[in-house]
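BUG: 3D viewer hangs when loading the predicted structure for this chain

Environment: internal workstation, default settings.
Expected: structure renders.
Actual: progress bar stalls at 90%.

Input used:
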Amino acid sequence: MGSCFLPLRAGVLGGALALACAGLFHAAPTARADEGMWPLHGLPAQVLKERYGFVPSADFVTRLQHASLRFSDGGSGSFVSERGLVLTNHHVARTFIYKLSTAQRDLLRDGFYAANLAAELPCPDAELSVLDSYVDVTERVRGGRAALGSAGEQRAAQAQLAAHAQRKQIIASLEKECSESTGLRCEVVTLYGGGQYFLYRYRRYSDVRLVFAPEEQAAAFGDEYDNFTYPRYALDFTLLRVYDKGRPLSVPQALHLRSQPAQEGELVLVSGHPASTNRGLTMAQLRYHRDVQNPIALRILEARLAALARYSATGAESARRASALRSQLENQLKRLRGQQAGLQSTAAIADKEREEAQLAATLKSRPELLASTASDATPFARIAAAYAALPGHTSRLQYGTLTPSKIASLAQLLVRYPVEIAKPNGSRYEEFRDSRLPSLRAQLTSPAPLYPDLEEAVLSDWLEQLRQALGERDALVQALLDGKSAAEAAQRAIRGTALFSVASRKALLESGSAAIQASQDPLLALVRRADGELRTLRAFYDERVQSVEVPAQAQIAQARFFAHGPSVYPDATFTLRLGFGRPLGYEKHTTLVPFQTLFYGLFERALSFRQKPPFELAPRIAQALQQGAIDPATPLNFVYTADTIGGNSGSPVVDRQGAVVGLNFDSNLEKLPNRYYYVAEEAGSRAIAVHSVAILAALERIYGAAPLATELRGTPAITP
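Structure tokens produced before the viewer hung:
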């Protein structure tokens, strides 16, 4: 355990931090180099002090907390002016830009700049959240669990299910009490697989407006050829503004952009919301991901992309309508391929096996750590048994969803809404708990455009995938197709539904269960036929897998705590984390890769490919080049060593004074396996960011948006 360097504060209400010398800020002897996605209530101060001579003050951490934003549909951002200006990636805000675009006004193709507040465009169904405060509720969640005691295997399984149900009820109760008493969105976050529980309180903002976006060709130069590669030449940034009661939100703790580029070797910190990692999985779980789940997921993504390609080929407008989903799926596919390749590394798997053997030995030497289970089996054995039964159900679990179709997903929410809210809060599906209903209602009544021809193509493809994967006799397939072909079933449901109308969805939402059950809408009828099977699948996974995983992972977490103290960071959970590292080049195949790229490299790459798609210069950049408006020596992108993953897109990269020096937007191929294990910087693992100076130069010298650059500069001081 390291020394405590920060003053103790008695609580976390209102954003104050609880910094206990007993270990909330601690050393991390098991963490290597710049490894770790650290919760704010568990920062490795000793590592930062020893490696970088820097210990963040409580004010520094609090300001980063209140400046960091989470996008409800994935991704991060930050407040970068006192008037509610938000900086994030173009690809994070892409759904907003896409929804604001039409065939006549394509903002993805042409870009956008609001020269004044009146010109800023409201983003449909936007939801941004800021972590207001948090509190440890581990004892409350654990303290209410059903007593287990020693029992036979059948009684043990029953007790396990009872404890799992009670745990969910306690979590729902905590969230509801918190939301009702604070008016904030409250979420109980499970850390260390159930070893720790925190109640996070969020301020939620839904009046979000588009301020600036470059052309997508500038933001995503090189498209999929350059995705997850380096060197990169992307202006992947967008500016939004948050409003409160019709006025720009006042944000006194906003960050500001530094006018000097990040330097190689300097300390940088990244504050964002990494979505999900699986570094705490057991060997049984890892083998299941590698051998069963991921191969099926890869086939699904490949098939969905092929269907989108067929739809896009029908015309330019079809290609525009499909572009958002295509971009999302291509990114998922490339990432998953890299993660799967990482799981096939014999050296990495050997490391995981050694770690598991050490934890198993710790549990064996400390029998009191197993006292809370009704089974005599070790947690590793219980998880292995649960996963041994999964392969035969995996296809149904993977295909047991309607989420590929947006309109079908909305129909499913409408069918389930009155059924779920009639239940006690603790017995509902998580998405229908009282604390989450405002977001769910906003989703159901969103005015965002939905395109019937695209929805029909997507749903038809998905139904055909189900038919081929599960077989014609499968109960779910029979319920969805109702004796028709996939194309016929999709055509009837999509062309006959009234749910593309926001007014119709709103009326059904307010009408109650009887009206929804009696509705002759063909899409609602399709969902009603399938809902029983879909619920059965969800219950199977919850009862047969999650009820086993959570208590078992909690015991494994206890073994980790015993072996290492609270110096191991938890897996990412789409909650606020802080990482650190330094801009640093690397060696690849005996070639030295520089830590940064310049606008000159962008020009050279475009000319080398004779400006053929996807390597043509965006029009405004080409014009600035011809006019000599932009210095080719201006830094553009850089790589750095911090531990990041999907969800960190849009995260601010700050220096030790808290000034923004970069905007995280990607990682290189070498880093992709980091979902399952940390890939060391010596292996060339890097995150990729846009230089702050590139953002400022683009606004001032390319896009004629100098007032925004002035607003972004502000006063960058944070007391370190």
